[in-house]
Amino acid sequence: MESIRTVVYLSVCLSVMTSLCQGQRSADNHLPSAPDEPLMGLTTKDLAEALQGFLDEADSSVGLSVEKKASVIPRCDVGERCAMKHGPRIGRLCDCLRGTACNTFFLRCY
């Protein structure tokens, strides 16, 4: 009985504190209002150009690792066809998401 009273008291105190402090925020936790205002000495355009240069360099160094590998089976959603029947054998087209399995009769993820 005493523990229930304590839990109720704490929940009431927390709800009152949350409702009182909900509208208050620190002045440091907001983004600058002007889009071209320098951030650490760089404008938005400078940051975008630096990011584009970095992404172009990363794309050239990645090369063939992004392409499809023979050992990797792609994922398929629920209801998609996940296998194909070749006579008595069943060939996998994709791997079903977690919590689903490939139904061997319908050949779909369920």
From TrEMBL:
Residues 1-23 form the signal peptide. GO terms for molecular function: neuropeptide hormone activity. GO terms for biological process: adult feeding behavior; cellular response to starvation; G protein-coupled receptor signaling pathway; negative regulation of appetite; positive regulation of MAPK cascade. It holds the Pfam family CART. One of its GO terms (cellular component) is extracellular space. SUPFAM superfamilies: Satiety factor CART (cocaine and amphetamine regulated transcript). The keyword Lipid metabolism does not apply. Its main location: secreted. The keyword Secreted applies. It is found in: Secreted. Keywords: Disulfide bond, Secreted, Signal. Belongs to the CART family. This is Cocaine- and amphetamine-regulated transcript 4. It comes from Xyrichtys novacula. The lineage of its organism: Eukaryota, Metazoa, Chordata, Craniata, Vertebrata.
